[in-house]
Amino acid sequence: MSEATKRRPGRWTVARRIVQAGALVLFAAPLVMAGWGLLGIGFGTDDALPTPADLPFFGSLSSTTILGAEVLDPFAMLETIAAAKTFEVEWLLAALPVLAVYGLVRGRAFCGWICPVNLLLEGVDALRRKFGIEVREAPVPRHAKLWIALCVLALSALTSVPVFESFSPISAMNKGILFGATAGVWTLLAIVLAELFWGRRVWCRALCPLGGFYEALGRAGQANVRIDHKACVRCDVCRRACLADPAILSPALDGDDVIVRAGDCMACGACVDACPTRALSLALGRTAKPKAKAHK
């Protein structure tokens, strides 16, 4: 058993679990408050029930209403534009708050801190370790999801249907819990099986088109993992803990950079919690890339 496995969850992992659970509760609360129930199951009353949409907050990760203002998932907006072959300014305005938040923080912070599929797969990852099931670390190149995202948009335009929304495992988790929707259930099952027997984090790292979209957005985020090169002992525990892809840590660990600059970083803090010498930290601010070292 590795050192990373033995360690108790650190403060960033605990904070992330609280945020992930809080997101699920936040979206479920309006349905419960209105008396609708979850999983598409009502409470069985014959009395007229209020509409959850009348509450200050209501919706899903695809589309949410906050104080009467609609907020859209930016990638779902792009799919809709491609499928409808039209553009509405209202769609862009609804997506801008999400773009601004994740653009300033880090694009893939959504994956690390909010996405329910990531929460599920962390549990599957722990289950696989418990039973000693060995899988490949990177069976698919991590940048594949960028091309998959482009293909999804192209197919949406060709079929006039928002393609990813029809099989999204995020919908299977989020909308399934809230409304009992079944879209994406088979995709979710396939992802769990792939996680157990094929490759570690293969969906999140390499195949998810939404992750590809946020990877592109995440190249300018302000939440960054920093390294203290003097404290680093090159134990590679952080690489084993990384949820995104160990390769994104290489420039910092090899001494070529002082932060993890890759857009794939989820700012999840898993590597920070795992580091035995506290050489890694998660902080705001994006420093300039150091000049290349001169070779003698």
From TrEMBL:
<dbReference type="GO" id="GO:0051539">
    <property type="term" value="F:4 iron, 4 sulfur cluster binding"/>
</dbReference>
<dbReference type="Pfam" id="PF12801">
    <property type="entry name" value="Fer4_5"/>
</dbReference>
<dbReference type="Pfam" id="PF00037">
    <property type="entry name" value="Fer4"/>
</dbReference>
<keyword id="KW-0812">Transmembrane</keyword>
<feature type="domain" description="4Fe-4S ferredoxin-type">
    <location>
        <begin position="223"/>
        <end position="252"/>
    </location>
</feature>
<feature type="transmembrane region" description="Helical">
    <location>
        <begin position="176"/>
        <end position="198"/>
    </location>
</feature>
<keyword id="KW-0408">Iron</keyword>
<feature type="transmembrane region" description="Helical">
    <location>
        <begin position="146"/>
        <end position="164"/>
    </location>
</feature>
<keyword id="KW-1133">Transmembrane helix</keyword>
<dbReference type="GO" id="GO:0046872">
    <property type="term" value="F:metal ion binding"/>
</dbReference>
<keyword id="KW-0479">Metal-binding</keyword>
<keyword id="KW-0472">Membrane</keyword>
<keyword id="KW-0411">Iron-sulfur</keyword>
<feature type="domain" description="4Fe-4S ferredoxin-type">
    <location>
        <begin position="256"/>
        <end position="285"/>
    </location>
</feature>
<dbReference type="InterPro" id="IPR017896">
    <property type="entry name" value="4Fe4S_Fe-S-bd"/>
</dbReference>
<protein>
    <submittedName>
        <fullName>4Fe-4S binding protein</fullName>
    </submittedName>
</protein>
<keyword id="KW-0813">Transport</keyword>
<keyword id="KW-0004">4Fe-4S</keyword>
<dbReference type="InterPro" id="IPR017900">
    <property type="entry name" value="4Fe4S_Fe_S_CS"/>
</dbReference>
<keyword id="KW-0249">Electron transport</keyword>
<feature type="transmembrane region" description="Helical">
    <location>
        <begin position="21"/>
        <end position="43"/>
    </location>
</feature>
<dbReference type="InterPro" id="IPR051684">
    <property type="entry name" value="Electron_Trans/Redox"/>
</dbReference>
<dbReference type="GO" id="GO:0005886">
    <property type="term" value="C:plasma membrane"/>
</dbReference>
